[in-house]
Specification:
- By secondary structure, the chain is an alpha+beta fold.
- The chain contains 13 helices and 10 strands.
- β4 and β5 form a beta hairpin.
- Bound molecules: flavin-adenine dinucleotide.
Length: 384
């Protein structure tokens, strides 16, 4: 399948990231998960390899690679460790994209070189206690005061929040007495008035850092705004559209990791005098897993390729995220079944892949929200 979307360069990137994941991440993945340790050393190493700036143009110090490369790198990381993959994906797509897409030249010069090198880690704060799927219900307020804004409110479930040096976030903007819309802002995380909560205790993605943020009379300069309030909502929706390709890729990696373990195990494990993959039910389960993963790859790479070639991918990114994340949940569940009792204990890692899969159906837009986006899009097409 890769032949459809891959040039020689894409194969080289895949091999490079796969080698890194297998030699550097695989030996520590189980331990990072068990202890909930943020992979700080691995982030540094990924920075040196150019992975943390994979989508940033070379003139800002990044690798300047396309979306197909970006998806490939995430698949290879998630195939071994989804926590490391989401740390990189949240940094590159959510943390870096807003300034890349909507920043002024001054903002880009200021933030992108650090983000691209991995020396500064990025995070993106959109979700609030009452504003998850309903992202427009943001209550955080930035009130204009001279050349500054005073921000009050907060965000929840923010990936990389406790480790990031740079944060983009969304807020209502109040100018005079008027609410002029929702805008995105970019700030340093050492800004006075920004308080960072405790690390969340999660079902999966345990090594990834997820926290609540509080803005308490946080004073930020007016030029911290990305774009304008009139297109603020569009700003973060565009960021999320690309983010969906990355969650689709993460889903493929998660499914692939579990599938490969199940396939190998099915070849080694014997019951009733034969390998278990000779039983049709086990064999068909493996065939279904392989087919769903292949279909997910087609959807994710199609969305990535379309983005690289200038197409609007609102529908395609939603389809890719929806199908791939549901595939990850199904494949990791079935992989445990193939391993029987050994799938349920930690020695074979499939239970880690299973725990890491569920969030893929929730983060960056739940499956229900993806279906809404797809439906809206196909009904719109009908009217043309
Ligand atoms: C580990 C983790 C990491 C995260 N990282 C980030 C991050 O870095 N930045 C960030 O901003 N956010 C982040 N999030 C938040 C995540 O994007 C939200 O949790 C997600 O968008 C869902 O929002 P919610 O939790 O408020 O659920 P809700 O919106 O309350 O949804 C609850 C249920 O209602 C359904 N529902 C809601 N509206 C509709 C509708 N119109 N039609 C049909 N069904 C609907 C949903 O599908 C869901 O099943 C993270 C979350 C987690 C758990």
């Amino acid at each position: 399948m890769n032949k459809l979307f891959f040039t020689q360069e894409h194969y080289m990137i895949r091999d490079m990231v796969r080698k890194f994941a297998e030699t550097e991440i695989a030996p520590v993945a189980r331990e990072l998960d068990a202890t909930g340790t943020f992979p700080r050393e691995l982030v540094k190493k990924m920075g040196k390899l150019g992975i943390m700036g994979i989508n940033v143009p070379e003139k800002y110090g990044g690798a300047g690679l396309d979306m197909v490369s970006f998806a490939t790198a995430i698949i290879e990381l998630a195939r071994v460790d989804a926590s490391v993959a989401i740390t990189m994906a949240a940094h590159t797509s959510l943390g870096t994209l807003p300034v890349l897409l909507f920043g002024t030249e001054e903002q880009r010069q200021r933030y992108l070189p650090g983000l691209a090198s991995g020396n500064t880690l990025g995070a993106f704060g959109l979700t609030e206690p009452q504003a998850g799927s309903d992202a427009g219900a943001t209550k955080t307020k930035a009130v204009r005061s001279g050349n500054d804004y005073i921000v009050n409110g907060g965000k929840i479930f923010i990936t990389n929040a406790g480790e990031a040096q740079v944060l983009s976030f969304t807020s209502q903007v109040i100018e005079g007495d008027k609410n002029v819309g929702i805008a995105a802002f970019i700030i340093q995380t050492d800004t006075p008035g920004l308080e960072i909560g405790e690390k969340e205790k999660k079902m999966g993605w345990k090594a990834s850092d997820t926290r609540q943020l509080f803005f308490k009379d946080m004073k930020i300069p007016a030029d911290a705004m990305l774009g304008s309030p009139s297109d603020g909502f569009k700003t973060f929706m565009k960021t999320l559209t690309s983010g969906r390709v990355s969650i689709g890729a993460l889903s493929i990696g998660t499914a692939q990791g579990a599938y490969e373990i199940a396939l190998k195990y099915s070849n080694e494990r014997e019951a009733f005098g034969k390998q278990i993959n000779k039983f049709q039910s086990v064999g068909f389960s493996l065939a279904d897993m392989a087919t769903k993963i292949e279909a997910s790859k087609l959807l994710v790479y199609n969305a990535a390729w379309m983005k690289d070639n200038g197409y609007d991918i609102t529908k395609e990114a939603a389809m890719a995220k929806l199908f791939a994340s549901e595939t990850a949940m199904e494949v990791t569940t079935d992989a445990i079944q193939v391993l029987g009792g050994y799938g349920y204990v930690k020695d074979y890692d499939v239970e880690r892949f299973f725990r890491d899969a569920k969030i893929l159906e929730i983060g960056e837009g739940t499956s229900e929200i993806q279906r809404l986006i797809i439906l809206r899009s196909i009904l719109k097409d009908l009217q043309v």
